[in-house]
Design goal:
This protein has 184 residues and is mainly β. The chain has one helix and nine strands.
């Protein structure tokens, strides 16, 4: 019994000795695969960004909360009509930190995202416009590679993916970003 209590106390002490919070930002190239039927041009690429915070309670495991803006898909039919899709998500999930080398860490993220997707269009001279929105809870995945610049500051490269229910059908959104993470 004493041995079990000692082992439990040692595990709790080692977890709390490592526990740390962190915040991060990444910006980069976003892409949304959406329904572009009936539009002459459809620019699915844009810039996007994400903000996140987490609590790493062991060397390998963390929980994260984040916000991601996937940018805007621009639609046009000559000079007759314009439209757009936008998507953003609030995410909550787990992050698995895998040390790869002394200064490199691989990170795998998985969780749930509350996704808001919007569609709007306008006719000639901005007349006859309309908009619609869809909200859904979707699974998301993310992968990152972090390089420790200092013990607290890391440079990160990341890829985030989710499926989304857009007005006019379902699609997906991705963000390929470069950013910084600060641990405290």
């Amino acid at each position: 019994m004493k041995r079990a209590l000692f082992t439990l106390a040692l595990a709790a002490a080692s977890t709390s000795a490592f526990a740390q919070g962190y915040i991060g930002f990444a910006g980069g190239i976003s892409r949304q695969d959406v329904n572009c039927a009936n539009w002459a041009t459809c620019d699915r690429g844009d810039t996007g960004f994400k903000l996140y915070g987490g609590y790493q309670f062991s060397k390998f495991a963390a929980i994260e909360l984040g916000y991601t803006d996937y940018g805007t898909v621009s639609l046009a039919s000559g000079n007759v009509a314009t439209g757009s899709y936008t998507a953003n998500a609030i995410t909550l999930g787990a992050a698995l930190h895998l040390p790869l080398a002394p200064k490199f860490t691989g990170i795998v993220r998985a969780g749930l995202a509350s996704v808001d997707a919007d569609y709007s269009y306008a006719g000639p001279f901005g007349l006859f416009g309309a908009s619609s929105s869809e909200s859904s809870i979707e699974p998301y995945l993310g992968f990152s590679l972090a390089y420790a610049l200092t013990p607290q500051l890391s440079l990160t490269g990341s890829y985030d993916y989710l499926r989304a229910d857009y007005p006019r059908g379902s699609g997906s959104a991705t963000l390929l970003g470069l950013g910084l993470r600060y641990a405290f």
